[in-house]
């Protein structure tokens, strides 16, 4: 049941994944193109509390911070791309009718009652059908 809910969350978010990826790519560009003005201190400063009197460059610290933020964003992009690929691969395992139900319910976010009317079913039957498709087929091809 928990896996079914997790897969449903991924399915519901599927259509927004390319937009999220693009937003993150633009965020990386903004970070890369941001230049922090150096304050009046010199380039090298003794780090307070450092027993070794380690010399640290504020420019170096800024670059490291930017690199860490960019690495974090790239990891998020990789996770989103993997989720997208997992969904696409899993949906290929479905027959045309099952694909239609999954596309309507999760990708197009059509209300279950409307799907039920189109399939001459009850709303509860649509929920059960979706759960069965997820549990019996999609879960075999998705990593949670």
Question: Can you tell me about this structure?
Answer:
With 144 residues, the protein is mostly helical. Helix content is 67%, strand content 4%. It contains 6 helices and 2 strands; from the N terminus they run H-H-E-E-H-H-H-H. The chain has helices at residues 2-13, 17-32, 58-91, 96-107, 112-119, 123-136, and strands at residues 44-46, 55-57. The protein has a two-stranded antiparallel ribbon. A hairpin with an 8-residue loop joins strand 1 (44-46) and strand 2 (55-57). Helix 1 packs across helix 4 and helix 5 (112-119) packs across helix 6 (123-136). The two termini are 12 Å apart.
Structural class: mainly alpha
Share of helix, binned: 55-70%
The SSE string, one letter per element, is HHEEHHHH
Mean pLDDT across all amino acids? 87
Distance between the ends: 12 Å
DSSP strand tally:
2
Biggest sheet character: 2 strands, antiparallel
Q: Uncertain spans, ≥5 residues at pLDDT below 50? A: 37-44
Write down the Rg.
24 Å
* Helix run count: 6
Q: Globular, elongated, flat, extended or rod-shaped: what is the shape? A: elongated
How much of the sequence lies in strands comes to under 5%
Strand order of the largest sheet: 1-2
